[in-house]
Amino acid sequence: MTLAGCVSTPHPEKNTTAIPVAPEPEPVRPLMYAAMPDERFPIPAVKLDQLDRRFWRREVDYQTSERPGTLIVDTPAKYLYHVTPGGRAMRYGIGVGREGFAWSGRAIVAYKRQWPRWTPPDSMVARQPSLQPYSIANGGMDPGLRNPLGARALYIHEGGKDTLYRLHGTPEAFSIGKAVSSGCIRLINQDVIHLYENVRDGSPIVVVPDPSMSNIAVSSL
Question: Where are the stretches annotated Disordered (predicted)?
Answer without folding.
Answer: 1-23
